[in-house]
Amino acid sequence: RAQGPVFRRFGIPASRQGVFLMKAAIKSFSRKSPAIDKLAVEVRELLGLAPSAKTDAPKQTEQTAVFEKLVSRMRAAGACVSPKLARGSVPPLGVLGVVASAPIDAGEELCRVPVGLCLTAENVQEA
C-alpha cells in the first residue's frame, strides 16, 4: 500500500515483481554515486527492503548470529539443518533469506523439522 504511489510515479507494477525491479534499480544507481547511495539507504528503509551489506555490515553480522543461534537451537531440539544452508542473499536482487552456501546434490535433505517444532494455529493457542 505505502509503495503504491512510488510505483505509479515510475510506472512500476505494484507487486512483488515491482519491489524487485525497484530494488535492482536502486542498487544499480547507488553504486555510481555516494550521494545516491545515501538516498538509496533511506529508500530501502521506506520500501521495507533488506539493507545493503555495504552500508549495514554490523547489523548484518548481528542478524547472521541470530540465524546461527536459531539453527543451533533447532538442531538441539531434533531438527536436521544442513551445514550447506546459510543466511544470505543472491545477486542480482539481493533479497535476504536462506541460501545454499555449497553445491547441493539431487535429493539431498537440507532441512527436516519435527512436527513439534512447527508453528500451527493449535500449538500457538496452547502456548
Automatic annotation (TrEMBL):
Question: Could you name the domain of life of the organism this protein comes from?
Answer: Eukaryota
Which species expresses this protein natively? Alexandrium catenella (Red tide dinoflagellate)
Would you tell me the protein name for this molecule? Uncharacterized protein
